[in-house]
Design a protein that fits this description.
Layout (H helix, E strand, L loop, with lengths): L21 H9 L27 E8 L5 H16 L4 E8 L2 H12 L8 E5 L3 H6 L7 H5 L24 E6 L2 E6 H6 L11 H14 L4 E4 L8 H12 L7 E2 L4 E4 L2 H15 L6 H4 L4 H9 L5 E7 L17 H4 E4 L1 E2 L8 E4 L2 E6 L6 H11 L2 H11 L6 H4 L2 H4 L5 H6 L4 E2 L7 H17 L4 H16 L4 E3 L2
Parallel strand pairs: 1-2, 1-3, 6-9, 8-15, 12-14
Antiparallel strand pairs: 3-13, 4-13, 5-9, 5-10, 7-8, 11-12
Length: 476
């Protein structure tokens, strides 16, 4: 393929109903949406025959099956049916991987290393696009996107979800998300707590958890994902939801250096140590269950076993009709509160944003058919259905303008409001390895294997080893 195609620029105009504010969603996109992703070119050499046509009539589509939310699988199934109906003789095979995030990333990497198992289309967490493109697993899509009219509907920085530092695009964004504190109003009522609860700082979260522990025994007061089995859920919506509410950060974008010796890092680990060691969270054994993400979404929350959970805007997608954990009463039972900063200091609240893309494998023998599949999956109708069913936040203007999207999901008030204070994971290829060491530090303090001081020292040493001392800077 010719990879020199430049992409069109787009306005960041937002129109919205249902509390999806123009300024809020504009901010998430202007700030860098999901995360900025760099990549080197993947190779599609030998993917087509000598006449320039696909050398295969079939493609495989690999995706993660998790958490009771069938919206992704339903989207891919609709796209499969459309492609096979439009192109008789062509075949699309959907290949689900039932695993947590770390297990999925590992399996996908192994498949990409095998010429016989490498997928043609793959579901990619946005923070992995740069790493997988650097590894040569992904094909650039620029020629295709330049000829695809729907690409003009994507807001400018939404395109960055799959874009490399070389300016080439390796994936198309499905949606984005935010995170907040989900809480059970019925459990709060039993504990004598305000059903319109909005904590002002970390101390109030801990006080609320203590009250629930005392007044409603048998209920888990607060779930914060932690440890290696939770994978990126621990790093991002556990630890980083805390860290970015302090005065510190993981990575200084201005100096392009990783932060070590950070007080905010230590304080965030102390919060994790406190809730797990003082009985305000699941037991470490429960938290280290390989299916913890699914358990929280499909069991603990619908069954009233957890009072509060730091979780994402997508979580109701598992509870909607036709999904894996239908819960018709969820809107009456559950509410959301913004995650406060550590002391309530300006900007008062914080959140994290991420998202997923669909990408094409560099080893695909049918890249044109794979692109046809992406086009079928990313029509306006399909994109609207997907974000409504998955409780996602749209990244296309025509979806944002769609009344079906604007009136969907009663949780969008808080979860769109926090767009104005959201943060994004560092857009570097080192991040996945750094994230792994965040999980190690969290697990060490939650189980009591290390003190906070020891865990911080181990993390700082690991980061220095990963990126080099010259690429680190002292925290505040």
């Amino acid at each position: 393929m010719n990879l020199s195609t430049s992409l069109p620029t787009l306005r960041l105009g937002i129109s919205g109903g249902n509390s999806l504010k123009r300024s809020a969603l504009g901010t998430i996109l202007a700030a860098g949406l999901i995360i900025g992703l760099g990549a080197c070119s993947g190779s599609d050499e030998n993917a087509t025959g000598p006449d320039g046509q696909d050398s295969s009539d079939s493609i495989t589509v690999v995706y993660q099956r998790y958490g009771g939310n069938k919206s992704l699988e339903d989207l891919l199934t609709r796209a499969k049916d459309q492609v096979e109906a439009d192109q008789p003789g062509k075949k699309v095979e959907l290949v689900p991987i039932e695993a947590d995030s770390n297990g999925y990333f590992t399996k996908l990497a192994l498949m990409n290393q095998s010429g016989s198992e490498a997928p043609d289309v793959m579901y990619e967490d946005s923070f992995m696009v740069k790493t997988d493109a650097d590894a040569g697993y992904l094909a650039p899509l620029d020629d295709y996107l330049a000829e695809w009219p729907d690409w003009d509907q994507y807001l400018d920085n939404a395109k960055e979800a799959g874009q490399g530092t070389d300016g080439k695009t390796y994936g198309v964004s499905l949606s984005t998300d935010t995170r907040a504190i989900w809480f059970n109003k019925e459990i709060f009522a039993q504990a004598g707590l305000d059903p319109n609860w909005q904590p002002k700082d970390w101390a109030e979260i801990l006080e609320t958890a203590e009250t629930i522990k005392d007044k409603v025994p048998g209920v888990i007061p607060l779930n914060v994902f932690s440890g290696k089995t939770a994978g990126e859920a621990a790093s991002m919506q556990g630890f980083e939801m805390l860290l970015y509410g302090t005065k510190d950060t993981l990575y200084d974008a201005k100096t392009q250096k990783w932060v070590t010796g950070s007080k905010g890092f230590a304080d965030s680990l102390e919060f994790i140590r406190t809730i797990y060691q003082e009985g305000l969270a699941p037991t470490p054994q429960q938290a280290l269950d390989s299916q913890i993400d699914t358990v929280v979404a499909t069991n603990w929350m619908p069954e009233g076993k957890v009072a509060m959970a730091i979780h994402g805007s997508w979580i109701p997608g598992a509870w909607l009709p036709g999904q894996g954990a239908e819960w018709p009463e969820w809107e009456q039972v559950m509410a959301t509160a913004k995650m406060p900063t550590q002391t309530g200091a300006s900007p008062n609240f914080t959140s994290m944003s991420g998202g997923h893309t669909l990408a094409i494998g560099a080893q695909s023998k049918a890249p044109r058919l794979a692109m046809d599949f992406l086009e079928a999956a990313f029509t306006q109708e399909q994109a609207t259905t997907f974000v409504v069913e998955s409780s996602g936040i749209a990244v296309r203007q025509d979806v944002i303008d769609d009344p079906a999207y604007q009136k969907s999901d009663s949780s969008f008030g808080v979860l769109s409001d926090v767009v104005e204070v959201t943060h994004f994971r560092p857009a570097t290829s080192e991040y996945p390895e750094v994230s792994n060491n965040i999980q190690i530090a969290m697990e060490a303090v939650m189980t009591g294997d290390k003190s906070v001081k020891e865990a911080v020292e181990a993390y700082d040493a690991a980061v220095t080893r990963i990126v080099g001392k010259e690429n680190t800077t002292a925290g505040k």
